[in-house]
Amino acid sequence: MNSLKTYLSTMLVSSIIWSQPFAGGPRVTTLILMLLGLFVLAKKLFPITDDRLKKFTILLALFWIPAALSLIGSYNHQASVKFIIALPFFIPFAAGLLYLIDNHVDKKLLFNMLLAVCLFCIADGVIQLMIGHDLFGIPPRDGERIVGPFAYHLRLSLFLAITLPLILSKLESFNWPWLPGYLAFVVFIIMLSGVRTDLLTALIAIGLYIIIKKRMKLTLMILPLVFIGGILASHYSGIAESKLKTFSGIPHSYSQWNQASSYRLDVWLTAWNMYLAHPIIGVGTQAFTEAYDEYKTPDNYFNQQTNPISHAHHPAISIAAETGSIGLIGLLTFIWLIYQWGAKSLNKNMWAIPWLQILILIFFPIQSMPLLFSFWWFPVVTMTILYYLAEIESKQPTAKAKSS
After folding, report:
1. Is pLDDT of 402 > 50?
2. Pair 29, 39: CB distance under 8 Å
3. Contact 126/64 with Cβ under 8 angstroms?
4. Are 192 and 125 in contact (CB under 8 A)?
5. Which of 74, 95, 92, 93 minimizes the C-alpha distance to 84?
6. How many CB atoms lie within 10 A of CB 19?
7. What separation, in Å, do the N-terminal and C-terminal C-alpha atoms of the chain show?
8. So where are the chain's domains?
9. In this structure, are residues 301 and 263 in contact, taking their beta carbons and an 8 Å threshold?
10. Per the count of CB atoms within 10 A, which of 194, 282, 319, 387 is most buried?
11. What pTM value is reported for the model?
12. What is the pLDDT of residue 100?
């Protein structure tokens, strides 16, 4: 019975990742964990005074308070109010997840499940490339972009890249060909997706692994794999070829930089204009789309009527535009606390924690990422934060315990 509870609990937690390709993503999982959290808190099966839960609540407040203040001048009051109401429910979500981590989830099984999911997605992507559709009959997006089971969403490459710290730490215990072999397929699939920012995420993840683990010799193996992967991807996909060509030279004008960044400069310049106009409380959380046309430049690639943009494609830029300086102060405090709590923890090798590496990837300054507070992405972010807090709160084995 206990083994069944362990399996089902681990399956539930891992579904935050493996449910992503399905309609609704992890919404059902999120609801279950929220209800479980309310139950265990009400029945006092999980203490509301738990340090990890208190720390998570503090981190959540750093986003919620600026969001609440931004309601004053919000360009979309309805969306802002919904966000303000919904965000606190991630406190019971956290309680439910921490309860399962403490009592039922098997860490090794969780890593194995996530590895199995990633390997399946890679295989599904290769099948999609070879026969024109994946195992579920899904064709490549735009005729060439490999998306695997994610249908028309460009999220296969995102999840392969963002889970690399976890998978690499798992593959360390395997024979040596597994790690470079896995990296080769991941880089190849990401290139075939045509999402350059996910390729950058993967390269940053690999770089963190090499530096933290002091495996500089792996660099000599990775560079040829990236080069060969680029040649193969360019051969199979015209989109991959055109995207990779943007790395071959340095743009010399705004227009070239804008095109090379998939018109992100237009988005970020518009976000900057929003911040300048509303430097204290922003244009309102979740109101980026509604405010966009008022602050965009005349020759902007996006517009609300025919080519809308839903978010700023970076957590910090989005927070600055939507919640102003108060939101930025909250974000900087969030980052400072994440570091401070880790530095003061019993875990002496804080940077080797895969969950912290994932947080670095999510908030990396020059990176493009999904909308932080979306119902398919924020459960992933919350899971990452909670596992990081659980790692730094856990006691490390003593020398005597290690030798016994």
Report:
1. no
2. no
3. no
4. yes
5. 74
6. 20
7. 30
8. 33-104+263-404
9. yes
10. 282
11. 0.91
12. 97
